[in-house]
Automatic annotation (TrEMBL):
High-level lineage: Bacteria, Pseudomonadati, Myxococcota, Myxococcia, Myxococcales
Organism this protein belongs to: Cystobacter ferrugineus
Main location: cytoplasm
The protein's assembly and partners: Homodimer.
UniProt GO molecular function: uroporphyrinogen decarboxylase activity
Record-given protein name: Uroporphyrinogen decarboxylase
Gene3D superfamilies reported in the protein's UniProt record: 3.20.20.210
HAMAP family reported for this sequence: URO_D (MF_00218)
Amino acid sequence: MNDRLLRAARRQPTDTTPVWLMRQAGRYLPEYRAIRGNIAFLDLCKHPDLAAEVTVQPITRLGVDAAIIFSDILIPVEAMGIELELGDKGPHFPNPVRSAADIERLGVPDPVQGTGFVAEAIRRTRRALNDSVPVIGFCGAPFTLAAYMVEGGGSKSYILIKRLLFEQPQLVHTLFEKLTRTLIPYLLMQVEAGASIVQIFDSWGGELSPWDYERFCLPYLTRMVKEVQAKGVPVILFGTGMSNHLPLLKRTGADVIGQDWRTPLDEARRVLGPDVAVQGNLDPLHLFLPREELEARVVDILRRAGPVGHICNLGHGILPPTDPEAAKFFVDAVHKHGFALRQSP
């Protein structure tokens, strides 16, 4: 196996810098659109053969160092008993969670019965790749999932979830506890199926102040990280707009802290210290730069991160209008300059 990503996550030496892209299996790839044109997104997530096929597509085309299983962070939430719609305009919950009764109605599903298709997709992906690169499992963090559930979908202000946090904190803790009890077995199921590393997406965690993040999020994330690590699997924790949260994210014990593009990686390393790996952090829109300038951005990121304990990635998911050749150029540039960085005296 090409184990660069796993070695980097554990801050071990690698021959070059490993790289993968968030949303690397998606709408920017014509081969993905060819499959997606005949099936709804949620159905595709639940079809192990097709989910495995689109998971493998960017490995073949781009040469990335890991395959992230094709799924969605809201899959385990649907299994809790809430109706979910996933369309081109994003997720929508027709009956959002707003009360104690709504939370009481949510179940804690058996992961195999409720989401076993994700495990099967991982197994089929490993077979298709012949274990040539690691498979990344993932889930959303309790706050991010709760935000979708309470708001009924995406939000600009997050007023509903934040009011619930501040006006009825005990109710929120009840919801987060139920989510955590769902997410830990869900991640462990993915590990059992063959995921060699997992990423927890706290996409909207940056909407909270550090004080609120410590109070409402940190205990649950710490439990999740420890349970996965107990199986010998490293954990990546990622969120956007969280530069002020870095000391808290470190306290979770995660092996790798993912960065968006707003924080230089040398600054992140200064705050996090030497015992945590970093991931990131090219702005996804930098893939639209002229090649020479894109390459210069790659070199700058690699120099700031250093040769050990860095997984190169975008600072968020790749965007649908992106030229696949630009993504390929990025991956190749990371490998080329990552190797050169290790040859420097």
